[in-house]
Amino acid sequence: QKVSVEVLDHLEHLALVDFRDSEGVERLQKAIQFADQLHEVNTDGVEPMDSVLEDRWCLYLREDDVTEGNCTKDLLENAREKVEEYFVAPPGTDFLTKV
Amino acid sequence: AVLKGRLRSQVSAALKEGQVTPTELCQRCLALIKSTKFLNAYITVAEETALKQAEESEERYKRGQPLGILDGIPIAVKDNFNTAGIETTCASNMLKGYISPYNATVVQKLLDQGAVLLGKTNLDEFAMGSGSTDGVFGPVRNPWSYSKQYKEKSVPKSHSEDEESNWVITGGSSGGSAAAVSSFTCFAALGSDTGGSTRNPAAHCGVVGLKPTYGLISRHGLIPLVNSMDVPGILTRCVDDAAVLLGSLAGHDPKDSTTVQDDFKPFELPNLTDVSQLAIGIPKEYNAPGLSSEILALWSKAADLFKNAGAKVVEVSLPHTCYSIVCYHVLCTAEVASNMARFDGLEYGHRSDKKDSTESMYAATRREGFNDVVRGRILSGNYFLLKQNYEKYFVKAQKVRRLIANDFVEVFRSGVDILLTPTTLSDAAPYTEFIQEDNRTRSAQDDVLTQAANMAGLPAISVPTALSERGLPVGLQFIGRSFQEKQLLTVAKWFEKQVQFPMIQLEEVKRHDDGVFQHQKSASFS
Predict the structure, then answer these.
(1) Which CATH number fits domain B2-152+168-324+398-499: 3.40.50.10420, 2.40.50.140, 3.10.580.10, 3.90.1300.10?
(2) What's this model's pTM, rounded to 2 decimal places?
(3) Tell me, what's the ipTM?
């Protein structure tokens, strides 16, 4: 089963990595083929596992108290384009732009 | 000689008694890093800050107030851990020049105990790979390539060709850390382990590689690959040292909500003499396709070692082992697709000059910043996460994961304490041979023995066992019960003592200006 052009377009938009050379598409096909082996396994009645720590209930919500912050300057340090305390992005999005 | 010592019993004592100072130790390590530059183990060497840390440590020793065993000890950190003020690149163009404003929790813990941070070690780009060959700073060379033991066994084609074409890989993805420890440039190094990335290079480089239980050590500041499987890894020259590092790193971190809240008590390892109470499990599925006959024999010999010492040794079965690589492939790429989404050029890292639109800037940034391996995984991951594929692939893989984890639960429930398996399929391959297969194929092959432990979140350790026919290290792996690191390490230490793995005899390699390596026979490091 080949991956359809619609799916490829959709993937490119979602993943935002280009792979339109035949090598990229082939690599994807191989990855899917490899993953298809999963369907040999009988998983009837098996619950999906999100975390190996599921028995320990360790994921928790802490109190909504401010414990750190005031580091705007540090955080902006690594951004290439900024204006005052804003990160600057090019205007608009264009779903059909070919990169 | 102190460079070869054990932390608790030898180095710490030497520092306390003033036989060696932290500054001397630091300088010696820095000099060694320079003279082993051809290994390409380090991406960044933080010479100034390291010397400053060493000086501060020295002051504390003078006052008789060292912070602990790690005070003044030179260590290295894999370059996917955030280090404040020191570049963190993940061996990728995406993060070249990135200077983090904070330390990863594990880095902070080491610094708080006076450890001296020598630098950041090389890896596969974003920790994706099993060779440490796919980073933008080039591949890491296994120090054993330059050992007397390897050279004696290899047939040189011609004198100059010998050096250039014969060197072997470190394994990966924490190859830089493994090489750094193996070549004595530091006493311990941090790696990361998602599918075997600490244990694999440990086995190839003849050092101890510990993967702790998931949830024991904080991942805060470790640039994530697979949130449900990543752990910081520990690389040292002996099991005792791994226990020291573990003691200083483990424990709940409020900044990482996936760390368990149980109290962790650091421990010293007892000198086990009686193994008759131990039950060792030998999972038959780990006699995997491609396992070299040499390693199979070593594994068998190790099992006999335990048997002859009175331990109960039984064959066990982990029936879903053969699916763990496929399961990992889906879960890993899916989580990677999600985790790599943060790299868009806006807040940090590389940013493309393309300005047409936000999306085109993002896409160009990611094309320019990531290598093929990373992009390939992002793509596959996004495919498996598509609405029409989510149940079929991602959820399916999560179900298979439970089956894999349950296999271990069953085996441990049946009375087995520790599992004994090989760590790798063979000894380290020559670089020229390794790169003939692509990254995904290699990872799929090489991870098969290590990555089920990540699936199940279990602690596992690779212990250097013997040299292969080619004179290269082979390690064997012990897998333990969740949070039973003390038992795991105690058994590993006993085994280490039995096998008496030989010390690497590094020969100096002098490089002439015309770039031709000239092998120089000299006294081995002493």
Answers:
(1) 3.90.1300.10
(2) 0.94
(3) 0.91
